[in-house]
TrEMBL record:
Entries under PROSITE patterns matching the protein: RT_POL
Originating organism: Perkinsus olseni (Perkinsus atlanticus)
Entry coiled-coil feature ranges: none
Pfam families from the UniProt entry: RVT_1
PANTHER family noted in UniProt: REVERSE TRANSCRIPTASES (PTHR19446)
Domain Reverse transcriptase: 55-315
Protein known as: Reverse transcriptase domain-containing protein
Length: 427
């Protein structure tokens, strides 16, 4: 038995290249060691890595120096920058922590009960073979199926806003979830050690501070978001069998979307209330909360006097709802989405066009501007001609002639070139 456990805990040297390949391109942490450097030099320290990480797994202790990360705060679009929830905290961890976290993640994902639940069509974040595209497709297909059921049958797409999901989830809930799904004890111990004593160094201008994390998981790491994903597995179990009753749940990280369809308005509201009860029960256990004021519902057909509410607060009924970056309208025409994306692309192309427009044509004003720019590129203690010679700059008249010749020759208009140079006194 002891030798079997020892074999289970040992970290083979051949595994490190697999773990590092999955981390290529990540931003370095406080040690300023990129993953590319780790991969290029892996052959030398891999024996030491194997011994040290195996010892850490046996002791059930995540190294304390790897629990400290560098904080980068990204402003959330449309949020008040003066409020804490207006920023998204990203934790940049050290190279050693990334490697160990990836090892723990792979072992957690290989546990039989967790592996089976990660294959559920409900979950789409941080899973192999799934992405934001598969999540959006599932939501759209469920909404389309509800619309096609009957001309009068109502369907609702409810997008829920989870308030500060990653920083709020309780450590006790994560550990209880791991125990619930028969995760080996040594992995539970190492995850518990990982969660204890996490800290983030924050820098704003000349001010610096280190903040300890008493709950939640660090964003920006490999293991943190995956642990949040595992915390939602009880919710996946609670919704098993609900799809046959017209309730479809889709989870992508902390984005939660529910599609409810029924034959009548009152029945739709009843089904939603059943789903709402499951969602609120999970949120209470996990230590997170939904924000009804920012949640939205898409209803192609009216449901009478019935109201969709979340925790006692009515949910806003909208004509277009944003789900995972896709703007979904009632008719699934995606016209609004296409219009918005075309406008964004046009604006970006316009900015790119203006970057190169300064020399797109030779006009009188531009000729004067070029002369002034060349003449003013040096101190005023010598003549322009002397400055050009000393700096190795082509004289202004020759420079302008060269630019004009290049531009007009490309247009194939020699007559216009001669006339332009004559007008400017350059021929």
């Amino acid at each position: 038995m002891w030798w079997h456990l020892r074999s289970e805990l040992s970290v083979p040297r051949t595994a490190f290249r697999i773990y590092t390949l999955s981390l290529i391109g990540d931003t370095p942490g406080e040690d300023d060691v990129s993953n590319d450097i780790v991969l290029d030099t892996l052959e030398v320290p891999k024996d030491s890595w194997s011994v040290q990480l195996t010892a850490a797994l046996e002791a059930g202790v995540f190294p304390q120096e790897w629990k400290h990360s560098k904080g980068v705060f990204i402003h959330k679009s449309g949020r008040d920058p003066a409020r804490p929830n207006g920023w998204r905290p990203i934790c940049l961890v050290t190279s050693g922590s990334k490697l160990f976290e990836r090892l723990i993640l792979e072992r957690l994902a290989s546990c039989p009960q967790i592996r089976d639940r990660l294959e559920s069509p409900v979950i789409h974040g941080f899973c192999k073979g799934k992405s934001v595209d598969t999540a959006a497709l599932r939501i759209i297909n469920a909404f389309r199926a509800g619309r096609k059921r009957s001309k009068r049958a109502p369907v609702a797409l409810i997008q829920l806003d989870v308030q500060n999901a990653f920083p709020s989830v309780k450590h006790s809930h994560i550990l209880a979830t791991l125990a619930r799904y028969d995760v080996p004890r040594y992995l539970i111990d190492i995850v518990e050690s990982y969660l204890e004593g996490q800290s983030v160094a924050a820098t704003y201008g000349s001010d610096e501070a280190t903040v300890g994390l008493e709950r939640g998981v660090p964003q920006g790491s490999a293991l943190g978001p995956f642990l949040f994903l595992l915390s939602t597995l009880p919710l996946v179990d609670a919704f098993s069998g609900m799809e046959e009753k017209g309730v479809s749940l889709t989870l992508y990280a902390d984005d939660t979307t529910v599609v409810v369809s029924a034959g009548t308005g009152p029945l739709l509201v009843k089904r939603w209330r059943s789903a709402e009860a499951l969602l609120l029960a999970w949120a209470a256990n996990a230590g997170v909360s939904y924000e009804p004021a920012k949640s939205q519902a898409l209803l192609p057909r009216t449901i009478g006097d019935d109201i969709l509410s979340l925790d006692g607060t009515p949910v806003d009924i909208v004509k277009v709802v944003r789900v995972l970056g896709v703007l979904i309208d009632r008719r699934l025409s995606f016209q609004h989405h296409i219009k918005v994306k075309c406008a964004e692309a046009k604006a970006k192309l316009g900015r790119l066009r203006h970057l190169g427009w300064a020399r797109a044509g030779i006009t009188g004003k531009k000729v004067s501007a070029i002369v002034a720019r060349i003449a003013l590129q040096a101190p005023r203690n010598s003549s322009n001609a002397a400055l050009c010679v000393a700096a190795g700059i082509l004289p202004a008249d020759l420079e302008i002639g060269r630019i004009a010749a290049t531009r007009l020759a490309a247009l194939g208009c020699i007559t216009t070139l001669d006339r332009t140079l004559s007008v400017k006194g350059l021929k």
